Amino acid sequence: MDTEYDLENYERFLGEFRTDGVHWEKLEKRTATLFQVLIDGDLKELVFVLKHYPEYVEIVCDHFRYLYNYSEQVADIYAASKLLYMSEGYHQKQFVRNLLRKLQSVEEYDLSELKKLLDELLESKDSIHPIILGYYKQNIEKNISESSYHVLQVKVLEKKLASIDVKDNFDFSASDRDANLDIPYMD
Known about the structure:
Layout: H1 8-11, H2 29-40, H3 44-52, H4 57-64, H5 77-86, H6 93-101, H7 111-123, H8 130-145, H9 151-162
Helix pairs in contact: 3-5, 4-6, 7-9, 8-9
């Protein structure tokens, strides 16, 4: 995920940042458009830009709450983790839910794909945000419970899952300002 981009390609779109107003009112139209495009992507470029311009983190998180993901581009797990680390303090329920919706779904994964993902999660667990680890652990458990895998295969997966110690489990039932904002068609 250490791909570097040319910052000059983005700077021409970054206009004046205003501290007053709400949401996108703080940005010029071209800046808002840039962030909408970056949010809709795999998040690597978005994280790169926010690393250099952290004043936009809160606004990007706020916009993410209303994400529709038109491109259906799957988010890079490491970029999503970096975004979560960068945005500590701005984790509204709907922002986190929409960010997780951009990650690769394991619903249709077969046994070998689950094993491969679990191995990757275990190998990289120190660099993956706890919210993402918890998300994948929960969804892999769901996949296993709804599958017809052999008992021994399930035991192997469960042993690996037990190695993922999620210290921070995000409370999706939190009653923040987005508690009732759940877009049904995205579930």
